[in-house]
Design brief:
The complex is a heterotrimer of chains A (343), B (448) and C (375).
Chain A lengths: L17 H12 L1 H9 L2 H30 L3 H4 L7 H6 L20 E2 L2 E2 L15 H37 L1 H16 L2 H12 L3 H11 L1 H15 L3 H9 L3 H13 L1 H24 L10 H8 L8 H33 L1
Antiparallel strand pairs in A: 1-2
Helix pairs in contact in A: 2-15, 3-6, 3-15, 6-7, 6-9, 6-10, 6-13, 6-15, 7-10, 8-9, 10-12, 10-13, 11-12, 13-14, 13-15, 14-15
Chain B lengths: L6 H5 L1 H7 L9 E11 L8 E3 L8 E3 L3 E12 L4 E5 L6 H8 L7 E6 L2 E2 L5 H7 L3 E4 L13 H11 L5 H14 L16 H13 L5 E5 L7 H18 L2 E6 L2 H7 L2 E6 L2 E7 H6 L4 H9 L47 H15 L8 H8 L7 H15 L3 H13 L3 H4 L4 E3 L8 E3 L5 H5 L2
Parallel strand pairs in B: 5-10, 5-11, 8-9, 9-10
Antiparallel strand pairs in B: 1-4, 1-6, 2-3, 6-7, 11-12, 12-14, 13-14
Helix pairs in contact in B: 5-6, 5-7, 6-7, 7-8, 12-15, 14-15
Chain C lengths: L5 E12 L2 E13 L4 E5 L6 H8 L7 E10 L2 E4 L1 E3 L5 E3 L6 H8 L4 E4 L3 H4 L6 H13 L3 H14 L5 H4 L9 H14 L4 E5 L7 H18 L2 E6 L2 H7 L2 E6 L2 E7 H6 L4 H8 L39 H5 L5 E2 L9 E2 L5 H4 L11 H4 L16
Parallel strand pairs in C: 3-10, 3-11, 8-9, 9-10
Antiparallel strand pairs in C: 1-2, 1-4, 4-5, 6-7, 11-12, 12-14, 13-14
Classes of the chains: A mainly alpha (343), B alpha/beta (448), C alpha/beta (375).
Chain lengths: 343, 448, 375
């Protein structure tokens, strides 16, 4: 104890080992790491490719069907002949109008059936009113993807807020919110959406919001259980002790650290939402003719399945492929996020 | 380092008054009768008990309370370090969180810089938090893994609207260097740091808002010995540089002895002894403090003679013992006044009673038992009669009845079981107050 | 002194991770004699627990014992030989996994872990687990095993042992669970018990109880112990001889009194200096500079040279093994430090010193703005 003026307590912990560990661990927290993991997983990657492809189609269809429709109201654009389905009608064929001299229920190009030999003008065949199936599928993707995405975002946002608040505050807040959510959960999904539509109307927007609200329980229960464990972490208490406002603690610490499972569930939920909306369209709710959607095409094909089974197969296949793609990606995402959750 | 510290701090009142002179003699923090009870249940109907055999309504409302902290009072003076030591589950962390109002007290007051924290709420309480901070035990969990070091350190400043963005970053970098880190670490995630470095980040965060008072909840318990020394030294230096007052919580008596000016010992939710450091370690008065000091392994094989082992486990805080809470394990339980026993007789009675209460032996004959526990120190008179009755019950193979009988005869009448102790002791080292919650002090106080 | 019951020679246990080979234990030698308590002490990451597990051949993937010898009462628990290709392979004489399981573990060498909750199955009663263990390892019937279990529980200081047989692990307090494990370890009367930080999770008064109990039991049964801990206080309290590990290697090996009062390795010295004391007020702690380097990329030469106050240039080049540096009339005292030049012959004293205090010290100037101190 004889030495004096020792500076040993000022010792800066040496940087050895920090450097390399740094890059490796640093990246484990970020999105780049997660995406890298997904890329290394062929199943998830395949899902991602399909999702990107479908989303690309949907984006194109939205531009043609919605953006142009909106812009055509302005003279500036109308003078160019801008209108709904401008691109489709200019370069190929309208997805909604029956072509002149339409040939109904044609099979895909190389095949033939009672209605005639398929033609390469309609590579996947025609529907009951002679419209091209391919173009309708492309424009139908818009409804599937946007409904799936928007409904899920509604559910995710609503569920996250409810679940995070319930889990963070606990006590009676938790009791009230979670009992309310459970009440919602007790009503069958489909019935809930149907009654929502019954109250607010058949408008597509309400269908999306309805599906979203119906999925709130799933998300809020998921994030609540996560929040309950995260809120025991010392950094939450540290933020409270530092005087950080509750809403900032929830937004900056609680939600980001409990969000991973919600994200995974969200991806899976998009698939479910697509199925639900297709089902609703099949029943005649949701998007109204002549706007194309996969579920509605499926519904239409029901009466003519004997005559042209392909009219049923194509939209069914589209729904199947998209939903499976979201599930594959969601599973991959879960695996990618999981090791970090365990740490 | 040591020579720049106020030399009076460690030794007594004189230095402390000098240190606190600018702020008058008011303590920085005064805790009065602080109590925290927890409900021992969860779920919104779980406090109801269903009793199928009951008459009438078979449901009774019955809440069990965990008495985590009960009727604790003390003061912390400006610039000092109060060490709070106790075993796990003694309520020391609950006490810290209650006095910071991270959890609401059930009863009692906490006066901090003129305000009663127990009565503040909402925005006023939030603003007050700027002046009091906490450092946690677990360096892993106390930093948000998704945030970088810079924003972590800046967060309290943002919460209290201190400085602008640039000013905050500058201050964060400066604080990093003040706690012994490289300001370049500003952009790293907490993962990249060792445990000791993370505790330094915690320090920087706590100090960012220039608090007066910092609660340190076992800040070095998770660290290796050599790293612990680094962090402890840094904490001492910062205390001086920032004029901090610490409440330092630890289960480690060595660390507490090193860092504290005064020390409070907690047992089962109560402070049992509180005195200046030298006084407490060199002249401990409470049997629990003595037992703690005796059982701590000293890193020196020539000093490890005594181990003074306590019997049994800490009782449940749901139904703590009456009177002195330590009495169930106390080696110096006081004999009930109605018996006239010698020390040897009382020791034998006590040992026998404890063994019966804990069912510590297989039944043998009365003669064997008497020989084992009493030999020639068998007390007569009323005490002897009580023992006779116990032996009869033991013979009849009713050990529970015997235990109850012994408890009623020898333990319950003791002053330790009847009254809650609270005494002042004349200090031998320094001249600070020496509080001791043990009835052994009752005679000393009479002469006071 | 008689022959040691356990002899460990140049033990090497490596972990093969994605980032490279971690030499958790890298050439460690020590022995355990009959009826003694041997401490293995070191900070986290020193490799002390891995060394203990290696003796039982209980190292888990991706770890593997890759070299050295462990012999227990003459039986080779670990033994390697060189092949023609220059690689190492276990010898034929080395005990098979089956022999380890049936003859050594539990019967001859028992192990006690830090967390008793993980060693006891929460869904079976304590008595059931204890009884089963005794039945398997002592070849006795159920009722006899039960009697032994009660006896052992009483022996380790559990009140009402017969009633408590039917309790589940969670109904015991931490200290009581640790006692159950000690009872379990002792119940088969092994020659050696390896205790891996058994009291670290316990409160100091409970730790005191258990240390005392172990000391008594050790005397009564004559069992040898390897006591793995990071706490020099516990070492001083209970051990007869001590091995100090640093970064996978032995730094110093000595009888307990010599280790504390005649320290021969700068690491042990520095470790003792950095401890606050319960028995006297230490005004200023002297910490060891820096942090322990990663075992995946250990420093060249002596592993402690990056933090050693006595380091010299030669320490960067030469990695000393632990050699006997005792005077002729003393018990063996081994230290792995070149400053014992008469043993190591490496020109330590003429080598220029390395200044670790400033080297790894505070590299970035601390600004004085706002500081009230005079530093």
């Amino acid at each position: 104890m004889a030495t004096t003026g020792s500076t040993s307590d000022e010792v800066l912990d040496t940087d050895e080992g920090v450097g390399e560990a740094d890059s490796e661990i640093e990246s484990r927290v970020g999105w780049r790491y997660t995406l890298g993991q997904v890329k290394g997983d062929p199943t998830a990657l395949a899902g991602l490719v399909v999702i990107c492809f479908m989303s690309g189609l949907a984006a194109f269809a939205t531009l043609d069907a919605v953006v142009f429709d909106y812009l055509s109201e302005y003279a500036v654009f109308a003078q160019f002949g801008m209108r709904k389905y401008w691109i489709a009608e200019t370069f190929w064929i309208s997805p909604v109008k029956e072509p002149l001299g339409a040939r109904r229920l044609l099979p895909p190009a190389p095949l033939d059936n009672a209605y005639g030999q398929g033609t390469w003008d309609h590579p996947l065949g025609t529907d009951d009113r002679g419209r091209d199936i391919l173009v309708r599928l492309v424009y139908g993707s818009r409804i599937a993807i946007s409904v799936g995405a928007i409904a899920t975002v509604v559910g995710m946002v609503g569920g996250t807020v409810v679940g995070a608040v319930a889990g963070y505050y606990g006590g009676w807040v938790d009791d009230v919110l979670m009992r309310a959510v459970e009440t919602l959960y007790a009503i069958p999904f489909f019935i809930l959406v149907l009654s929502f539509i019954a109250v607010f109307g058949r408008n597509l927007a309400f269908v999306m919001v309805g599906v979203g609200i119906a999925s709130i329980p799933t998300f809020s229960r998921l994030i609540r259980s996560e929040v309950v464990s995260v809120r025991e972490e010392d950094y939450i208490e540290a933020a409270e002790a530092a005087g950080v406002r509750d809403r900032n603690i929830i937004a900056r610490h609680v939600i980001p650290n409990s969000f991973a499972p919600v994200l995974v569930q969200g991806t899976l939920q998009i698939g479910t939402a697509i199925l639900i909306v297709a089902g609703l369209s099949f029943l005649g709710f949701g998007v109204q003719p002549p706007t194309p959607s996969w579920g509605q095409m499926l519904s239409k094909s029901r009466g003519v399945m004997i005559e042209n089974v392909w009219f049923s197969i194509w939209p069914g296949l589209c729904i199947l492929v998209t939903v499976v793609a979201f599930n594959m990606f969601g599973d991959g995402l879960r695996d990618a996020l999981d090791p970090r959750l365990k740490n | 380092m040591s020579d720049t510290r106020d030399p009076g701090d460690a030794t007594g009142q004189a230095g402390r008054t000098a240190a606190g002179a600018s702020a008058g003699d008011d303590p920085l923090l005064r805790v009065e009768g602080l109590t925290k009870l927890f409900k021992n249940d969860s779920g919104f109907l779980s406090w109801l008990t269903v009793d199928r055999d009951a008459d009438g309504v078979p449901v009774t409302a019955d809440r069990e309370w965990v008495r985590a902290v009960e009727d604790v009072s003390f003061e912390i003076r400006r610039g000092e370090t109060l060490g709070l030591v106790g075993e796990s589950g003694c309520g020391k962390s609950t006490l810290a969180r209650t006095l910071l109002r991270l959890i609401d007290p059930t009863e009692g007051d906490v006066y901090f810089e003129g305000d009663n924290l127990a009565e503040l709420s909402g925005e006023a309480l939030r603003r007050k938090r700027k002046d009091m901070q906490i450092i946690f035990q677990d360096p892993q969990s106390s930093l948000d893994p998704r945030m970088k070091v810079g924003p972590i350190v800046e967060e309290p400043m943002r919460a209290h609207d201190m400085l602008d963005d640039e000013g905050r970053e500058e201050r964060a970098r400066e604080l990093l260097s003040r706690v012994g880190l490289d300001p370049q670490h500003y952009n790293r995630h907490p993962h990249a740091f060792s445990g000791g470095q993370r505790q330094r980040i915690n320090l920087a965060r706590a100090l960012s808002v220039n608090p007066d008072f910092v609660v340190c909840d076992e800040p070095t318990s998770a660290l290796d010995a050599s790293i612990q020394a680094q962090v402890l030294n840094t904490m001492r230096r910062l205390q001086e540089e920032f004029g901090l007052t610490y409440l330092f919580i630890s289960h480690d008596l060595s660390v507490i002895r090193h860092i504290s000016d005064r020390v409070a010992v907690m047992y089962l939710g109560e402070v049992v002894e509180l005195a200046d450091k030298e006084e407490l370690y060199e002249n401990p008065q409470h049997p629990y403090t003595q037992a703690l000091l005796d059982s701590i392994p000293v890193p020196d094989p020539r000093e490890s003679e005594t181990r003074g082992v306590l019997e049994g486990d800490v009782p449940s805080p749901i139904e703590p013992p009456s009177g002195c809470r330590f009495r169930t394990r106390c080696p110096e339980l006081i004999a009930p006044a109605e018996y006239d026993l010698t020390d040897a007789e009382w020791a034998a009675v006590r040992a026998f009673t404890r063994r019966v209460v804990r069912h510590g032996f297989e039944m043998t004959t009365q003669a064997d038992l008497e020989a084992e526990f009493f030999g020639d120190t068998r007390p007569g008179g009323p005490a002897g009669e009580a023992l006779d009755r116990a032996f009869v019950l033991l013979e009849r193979k009713e050990p529970d009845a015997a235990a109850d009988h012994l408890r009623d005869s020898f333990i319950e009448p003791s002053i330790c079981a009847r009254e809650q102790p609270s005494y002042e002791v004349d200090p031998e080292y320094g001249d600070g107050r020496h509080f001791c919650a043990c009835h052994l002090q009752r005679d000393e106080e009479l002469t006071h | 002194m008689t022959d040691p019951i356990l002899e460990v020679r140049d033990l090497q246990t490596h972990f093969f991770t994605a980032d490279g080979v971690v030499r958790a234990v890298d050439g460690v030698s020590f022995e355990v004699y009959e009826e003694e308590i041997v401490g293995i002490v070191g900070e986290s990451g020193a490799g002390k627990s891995v060394a203990a597990a290696s003796i039982m051949r209980l190292v888990e993937d991706p770890g593997e014992v890759v070299g050295g010898e462990v012999s227990f009462k003459g039986e080779p628990i670990v033994e390697f030989e060189e092949t023609e290709a220059g690689t190492r392979r276990p010898t034929d004489a080395m005990l098979s996994n089956r022999e380890m399981r049936e003859r050594i573990r539990g019967r001859e060498i028992a192990i006690i872990f830090q967390d008793p909750m993980e060693s006891l199955n929460p869904v079976f009663t304590v008595g059931g687990q204890l009884r089963e263990f005794i039945e398997i390892n002592r070849d006795v019937g159920e009722s006899e095993a039960r009697e032994i279990a009660v006896e052992m529980l009483r022996e380790v200081g559990i009140p009402e042992p017969r009633e408590r047989l039917d309790d589940y692990p969670h109904q015991f307090s931490g200290g009581m669970r640790q006692r159950v494990l000690i009872a379990m370890a002792l119940s088969c009367e092994p020659s050696l018990i390896i205790a891996d930080e058994p009291t670290t999770a316990l409160d100091v008064t409970v730790e005191g109880q258990i240390l005392e109990q172990v000391a008594d039991l050790q005397e009564k049964y004559g069992t040898s112990f390897i006591w793995v801990t990071h706490d020099l206080g516990v070492v001083a309290e209970i051990c007869d001889r001590v091995n100090v590990m640093y970064l996978g290697q032995m730094a110093e090996q000595a009888a307990v009194d010599a280790l504390f009062h005649d320290t021969r390795h700068p690491y042990t010295d520095a470790l003792l200096d950095s401890l606050p004391r319960p028995d006297r007020t230490v005004e200023e702690l002297r910490p060891i500079a820096g942090v322990m380097p990663e075992a995946i990329n250990p420093p060249s030469g002596c592993r402690f040279h990056t933090r050693c106050p006595d380091a010299r240039e030669v320490c960067r080049q030469v990695n000393p093994d632990a050699r006997d540096v005792s005077e002729s009339d003393e018990r063996p005292h081994r230290a792995a430090c070149l400053k014992h030049e008469d043993v190591f012959h490496e020109d330590y004293w003429s080598s220029p010193p390395i200044d670790n205090e400033t080297d790894s010290g505070f590299a970035v100037g601390r600004t004085d703005a706002g500081g009230s101190g005079d530093e």
